[in-house]
Design goal:
The protein is of the alpha+beta class and about 160 residues long. The protein is built from 6 helices and 5 strands, in the order ββαββαβαααα.
């Protein structure tokens, strides 16, 4: 089956069964390796992307449900070679240790900040609840997201 997708602003036509996980298409067909395979069941957050601005787990999002919608991956956040404020803040705050979960955390934060530009600490904790990280970088991640929120509000 051939399905049309818009990923990071570019139109793509993908030949795959409509039940194929979006994650597989992003990584294997489109070469976007920033979206990571973690648990494969939508529980760890490593594969989070934005689908029409909403955070979804790409590992359990069937391809058919992304047809005609805008998919944004961590690679699509940067503009003209300039890191997105979240990406820059994560670099500034050194908010990654092993880095495996970071793209999913950044995408979750991007979805949150688009809906709520001034999240409280509780909002941040609730939003990141489905992003598992065992490195101990959560404090730096929260600091980075707050820094990005401030930068995005004041442009």
């Amino acid at each position: 089956m051939s399905i049309s997708l818009t990923v990071n602003g570019k139109a793509h036509r993908v030949d795959a069964p409509d039940s194929t996980p979006l994650l597989y298409v992003l990584r294997n067909d489109l070469g976007l390796k920033g979206t990571r395979f973690g648990c494969g069941t939508g529980h760890c957050g490593a594969c989070h992307v934005l689908l029409d601005g909403h955070t979804v787990a790409a590992c359990d999002t069937p391809l058919w449900s992304a047809a005609g919608k805008a998919v944004t991956t961590v690679e699509g956040l940067a503009g003209n070679g300039v890191p997105h404020p979240l990406q820059q803040a994560f670099l500034d705050e050194q908010a990654a240790q092993c880095g495996y979960c970071v793209s999913g955390v950044i995408m979750t934060a991007a979805g949150l900040l688009s809906a709520n530009p001034s999240p409280s600490d509780e909002d941040l904790r609730c939003a990141l609840d489905r992003n598992l990280c065992r490195c101990g970088a959560h404090t730096r991640m929260l600091r980075a997201i707050k820094q990005a929120a401030e930068a995005m509000r004041h442009g």
